[in-house]
Structures are given as structure tokens and as C-alpha cells.
Automatic annotation (TrEMBL):
Organism, scientific name: Glacieibacterium frigidum
Alphabetized InterPro entries for the sequence: HotDog_dom_sf, Thioestr_dom
Gene Ontology molecular function terms on file: thiolester hydrolase activity
Highest taxon in the source lineage: Bacteria
Limits of the Thioesterase domain: 55-124
Protein name: PaaI family thioesterase
Length: 151
């Protein structure tokens, strides 16, 4: 049994938060992950003009990233041994998103063995849902304990 398998759920969740913060992509998208509890996450960030498309609203890239990450970490919060992989992700963008604080929330839906399903939603500064996503996540062969940001 590896070191990750011995972590308490709380320690696993804090390690996932450190892993998220250590990912190079998150240097381009200044955001913070909180694992609220097993199967539930929250990511907060502030959107600015650097995230806009030519029409003056947030580009879909940011919707996808936040929705995928929130659902992904909701699923991985239930798996302490290995890093999960996104195998499919569908998004629905329901409103344009302007500058300001945004929050993505994720929730595990089903699955416990090889494939897990999780959903997420994106909320703007006024409390409106602006997007929703659903993904499937598969266990990889990458031990979480082998990832520097997780340690």
C-alpha cells in the first residue's frame, strides 16, 4: 500500500489543492481550488479583459477549463491512489460572462471503480449560472504520490 493510500480524506483533499496550484496551466489562469468535501469542489477566480474574445466577453476556453477542473477534482477527491484523466467532457454555455469574480462548483454524480461521472456549473458575480458541464473521468496509472505538487 502506497503513501497516498494512508492519507486521511482531509489530507488527500489538501494535497489535491496543492496539486492544482502547482499545475503550470494555473499560472496562466490565476484561480484557487477548494475541496469542500469528498465529491464536492469549488474554484474561484476573477475574469479580466485578458480572458476575452474579440466580442468583449470571456472566451469559451475559460468556461471549459473551470468546468472541467471543478468536475475533475470532485471525482479525484474520491480517489486517493491515482490521478484521474478526463475521457469526455460536455459543456453548455448559457450566458456571456464579463469581467469579475466567477466560481465553478463541481459535484461527483456516479461511479466508484474505473470511471467516475461528475458535473459542474459556473456562476458569475451576480449569482447567475453561465455554464454547465458533465464529464467522465478514468483512473490512470499515475500514482498521486509520485506527483511533486501532491506531496
Amino acid at each position: 500500500m502506497g503513501r497516498a493510500a494512508r492519507l486521511s480524506p482531509e489530507a488527500h483533499h489538501r494535497a489535491l489543492e496543492r496539486l492544482y496550484a502547482s499545475a503550470p496551466i494555473n499560472h496562466a489562469f490565476a484561480s484557487a481550488l477548494t475541496v469542500v468535501e469528498a465529491g464536492r469542489t469549488r474554484i474561484a477566480m476573477t475574469a479580466g479583459p485578458e480572458h476575452f474574445h474579440a466580442g468583449g466577453a470571456v472566451h469559451g476556453t475559460l468556461y471549459f477549463k473551470l468546468l472541467d477542473d471543478a468536475a475533475f477534482y470532485a471525482a479525484n477527491s474520491l480517489v486517493a491512489e491515482v490521478f484521474m484523466l478526463t475521457t469526455a467532457f460536455n459543456i453548455l454555455m448559457t450566458r456571456p460572462l464579463g469581467p469579475g469574480p466567477i466560481v465553478a462548483e463541481g459535484r461527483w454524480v456516479s461511479g466508484e471503480r474505473r470511471v467516475l461521472i461528475a458535473e459542474s456549473w459556473l456562476i458569475d458575480a451576480e449569482g447567475h449560472e453561465v455554464g454547465r458541464g458533465t464529464g467522465t473521468f478514468m483512473r490512470s496509472r499515475i500514482p498521486l504520490a509520485s506527483l511533486p505538487g501532491y506531496a
